[in-house]
Structure formats: structure tokens, C-alpha cells
Amino acid sequence: MAPVKVFGPAMSTNVARVILCLEEVGAEYEVVNIDMKSQEHKSPEHLARNPFGQIPAFQDGHLLLWESRAISKYVLRKYKKDEVDLLREGNLEEAAMVDVWTEVEAHTYNPALSPIVYQCLIGPMMRGVPTDEKVVAESLEKLKKVLEVYEARLSKHSYLAGDFVSFADLNHFPYTFYFMATPHAALFDSYPHVKAWWDRLMARPAVKKIAATMVPPKA
Ligand SMILES: N[C@@H](CCC(=O)N[C@@H](CS)C(=O)NCC(=O)O)C(=O)O
């Protein structure tokens, strides 16, 4: 059977989220690079895969998907095994907690943390746009409040959804990985349970493998 395809530069955060899930479940896959500099993501071929002209896109035979979190869930459902069950859909309460913390990542954590990554790394290093320190300072204040909630949660459970690793945790990997290359990485040291959780995630073989391919732009 042809391997599933992920379209987009592997180093890109939302693409890395999908690739990490493919690695976690041990699926065979192919990464098809999309050249963002030449606007390939806005080409008719790519718009047929993702009508919003963004990366990632994903193909499994006739099925075309976009939105990295939705693609990731498809991958985790399709390749679920007893020993790799990252959505816990066999248990209503556990699955609900995975959903809760997956939503928290998308709507609370990421909006606080990702502007710092854009301002400190992606803008200055890849697009020649200087860091807006006001945006960074405001985002850091938001992030501290979010991390206080994470610290409380992770002082009671080893992972976000409970005492089991899940998609809710893995979902945090790409942006947090790049955050750790910003001058503000030490912020996590103030939240020991969050830091220990991050270190546990970084020790996972699939995470190590993907991290080795994602060289952060130099700050
Ligand atoms: N919510 C989408 C966001 C996708 C997204 O923002 N992709 C960026 C790259 S990381 C992109 O394609 N940017 C180019 C554009 O929007 O034109 C997802 O999770 O897949």
C-alpha cells in the first residue's frame, strides 16, 4: 500500500506535529516538500489539497485532509495499537480529558507562546523583521498565567490528560521546541512540574528523532 503523504516543509511547526504522530505510531509516510518561498502553497495543485493555501496538507489514497490537529487525530486513529493509544477513545472520560487539553493547547497555550516564537525567531531570523519587544512582553505575561495552570495540573498528574501520555501532550511539541531556542526558554525553570513534563516528552524516541530534524533558526 502506498505510504500516506504529508505536504509541507518538515521543519514547519504544524507539519512537525503531524510527522511526530506518524513517528509515534510507527506508520510509513512520505514528506513532500512545499516551497513556501516560491508560493507553492498557493498553487492550484496545493489549493486542491488545502483550499486555504496553507501547510500542512495530507493524503491517504483518495482522502485529502488539512489542519494539523485534525490530520494528527486521523493518523492516531488509523494506526492505533494497544500499546500506542494516544487518543484513549475506548474510555469516555480519558478521551474527554485528551480533548480538553488538546483544545487548551490550540486556544490558550499556543496563542500565548507562539507570538514569542514568531517575534524572537521566525520574524528576525527568517523574514528580516525585527522583534517587537512589546508583543513579547505581553505574550510572556499571558504565558506565565497559562503555565501556572499547567503547573497545578502537572503537580497532580504526570501528563496533561492524566497519568498517561496522549496527543494532548504531543500537540505541544513543535512550538514549545522552538520556544526553547528563544532567549525566554528559562521561563520554564520557574514551573518545575511543567519543566519535568517537557523533559519527559523530549526523552521520547519519536520526539528525539523529529527534534533532530528541526534546527531552530539562530537567535
Ligand atoms: N491551523 C492550521 C494552521 C496552518 C498554518 O498556519 N500554516 C502556516 C505555516 S506553519 C502556513 O501555511 N502559512 C502560510 C499562509 O498562511 O499563507 C494547522 O494547524 O494546520
TrEMBL record:
<dbReference type="InterPro" id="IPR036249">
    <property type="entry name" value="Thioredoxin-like_sf"/>
</dbReference>
<keyword id="KW-0808">Transferase</keyword>
<dbReference type="Pfam" id="PF00043">
    <property type="entry name" value="GST_C"/>
</dbReference>
<comment type="function">
    <text>Conjugation of reduced glutathione to a wide number of exogenous and endogenous hydrophobic electrophiles.</text>
</comment>
<dbReference type="GO" id="GO:0005737">
    <property type="term" value="C:cytoplasm"/>
</dbReference>
<comment type="similarity">
    <text>Belongs to the GST superfamily. Phi family.</text>
</comment>
<dbReference type="GO" id="GO:0043295">
    <property type="term" value="F:glutathione binding"/>
</dbReference>
<dbReference type="InterPro" id="IPR010987">
    <property type="entry name" value="Glutathione-S-Trfase_C-like"/>
</dbReference>
<protein>
    <recommendedName>
        <fullName>glutathione transferase</fullName>
        <ecNumber>2.5.1.18</ecNumber>
    </recommendedName>
</protein>
<dbReference type="GO" id="GO:0004364">
    <property type="term" value="F:glutathione transferase activity"/>
</dbReference>
<dbReference type="InterPro" id="IPR004045">
    <property type="entry name" value="Glutathione_S-Trfase_N"/>
</dbReference>
<dbReference type="GO" id="GO:0006749">
    <property type="term" value="P:glutathione metabolic process"/>
</dbReference>
<dbReference type="InterPro" id="IPR004046">
    <property type="entry name" value="GST_C"/>
</dbReference>
<dbReference type="InterPro" id="IPR040079">
    <property type="entry name" value="Glutathione_S-Trfase"/>
</dbReference>
<dbReference type="GO" id="GO:0009635">
    <property type="term" value="P:response to herbicide"/>
</dbReference>
<dbReference type="InterPro" id="IPR034347">
    <property type="entry name" value="GST_Phi_C"/>
</dbReference>
<feature type="domain" description="GST N-terminal">
    <location>
        <begin position="2"/>
        <end position="83"/>
    </location>
</feature>
<feature type="domain" description="GST C-terminal">
    <location>
        <begin position="91"/>
        <end position="219"/>
    </location>
</feature>
<dbReference type="Pfam" id="PF02798">
    <property type="entry name" value="GST_N"/>
</dbReference>
<dbReference type="InterPro" id="IPR036282">
    <property type="entry name" value="Glutathione-S-Trfase_C_sf"/>
</dbReference>
